[in-house]
């Protein structure tokens, strides 16, 4: 391992090797001759230390971590495109058909019309990759003239788009692949298959959940919410399209009867009493409090795959509320009407419900 040293330390070590009878003071010939070399050596040591850290999985980042992980067959997940439902209406607000491949815009995002799901309802795909395609809702504007079209609306997220995998997520998958090899239809293999599918954020596997040969695969979507029926259907088809015969027609091993299910969402209604700073009103903190609570629920949902069951904790709610500017104290916090932690089922995840604030 290399350890970077400052120029002053290196220069002093070099000067210490010069005979004492020679003038070594700053500005002397020997000092001015050695100083540039010491600066270059200090830079070299820093670059060696950086190169060293980029050579190991626990400290590597970016392209270097990608290359280390790929040596073990763990590839960084690329960003994916959001698939959404869109509704199209003609005169009299009646559903109408549109041509596949038509392009519609929402703000600066463009969505391409694809598969028809019902009269006037289509699956549309965002042209821009990443989670940004999940965020907009409301009116769509056609980029070309569509005869008879009165209005178009962008609806629910069917398969969420996700951003390129970050370093820490890739690092953890690398560790899992090395420490828990996927093989022969074991739990690790199921997780590896499921977590690589577009739109899937994480998964839990329940072996022999309904007798020998049966497997239940529970998933959460890539935006850490309850998966849509469209996403569940896609995953079921890829994994085990028969669902009960065990014929091995999908990615699941022969003899495995796989049932794909999704997490269910439970709304968490928060009620609490705040002591606010002088001159601060409830209206001034309401929005930030709701943002903080939504972020806490998201943090919990992200840990679903590693927990047997999730818990929304009153102490955590209080601690996060105390971080809101203008909030000096919190007391009497209740979750869904009870002043205690909220314990969820194995495949339940919390989402923010209502936030009711009182002032002391």
From TrEMBL:
Start and end residues of each Baseplate J-like central domain: 182-261
Domain Baseplate J-like C-terminal: 268-357
Signal peptide: none
Annotated Pfam families: Baseplate_J_C, Baseplate_J_M
Membership in a protein family: Belongs to the Mu gp47/PBSX XkdT family.
Protein name per its UniProtKB record: Baseplate J/gp47 family protein
Organism: Paenibacillus chungangensis
Lineage: Bacteria, Bacillati, Bacillota, Bacilli, Bacillales
């Amino acid at each position: 391992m290399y350890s970077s040293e400052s120029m002053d330390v290196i220069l002093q070590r070099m000067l210490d090797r010069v005979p004492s009878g020679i003038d070594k003071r700053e500005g002397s010939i020997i000092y001015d001759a050695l100083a540039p070399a010491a600066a270059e050596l200090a830079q070299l040591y820093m670059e060696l230390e950086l190169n060293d850290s980029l050579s190991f999985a626990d400290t590597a980042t970016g392209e270097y971590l990608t290359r280390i992980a790929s040596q073990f067959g763990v590839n960084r997940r690329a960003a994916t495109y959001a698939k959404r439902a869109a509704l199209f209406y003609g005169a009299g607000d009646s559903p109408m058909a549109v041509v596949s491949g038509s392009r519609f815009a929402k703000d600066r995002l463009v969505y391409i019309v694809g598969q028809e799901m019902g009269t006037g309802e289509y699956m549309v795909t965002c042209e821009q990759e990443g989670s940004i395609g999940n965020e907009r809702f409301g009116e769509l504007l056609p980029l070309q003239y569509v005869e008879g079209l009165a209005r178009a609306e962008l609806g629910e997220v069917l398969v969420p788009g996700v951003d390129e995998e970050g370093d820490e997520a890739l690092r953890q998958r690398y560790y899992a692949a090395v420490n828990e090899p996927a093989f022969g239809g074991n739990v690790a293999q199921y997780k590896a298959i499921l977590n690589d599918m577009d739109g899937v954020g994480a998964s839990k596997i329940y072996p022999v959940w309904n007798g020998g040969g049966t497997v239940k695969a529970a998933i959460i979507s890539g935006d850490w919410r309850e998966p849509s029926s469209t996403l569940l259907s896609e995953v079921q088809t890829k994994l085990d399209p028969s669902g009960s015969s065990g014929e091995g027609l999908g990615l699941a091993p022969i003899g495995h009867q796989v049932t794909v299910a999704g997490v269910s969402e439970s709304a968490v209604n928060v009620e609490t009493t705040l002591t606010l700073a002088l001159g601060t009103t409830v209206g001034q903190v309401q929005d930030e409090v709701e943002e903080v609570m939504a972020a806490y629920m998201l943090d919990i949902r992200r840990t679903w795959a590693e927990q047997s069951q999730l818990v929304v904790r009153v102490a955590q709610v209080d601690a996060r509320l105390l971080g809101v500017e203008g909030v000096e104290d919190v007391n009497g916090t209740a979750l869904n009407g009870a002043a205690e932690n909220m314990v969820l089922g194995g495949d339940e995840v919390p989402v923010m419900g209502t936030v009711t604030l009182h002032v002391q």
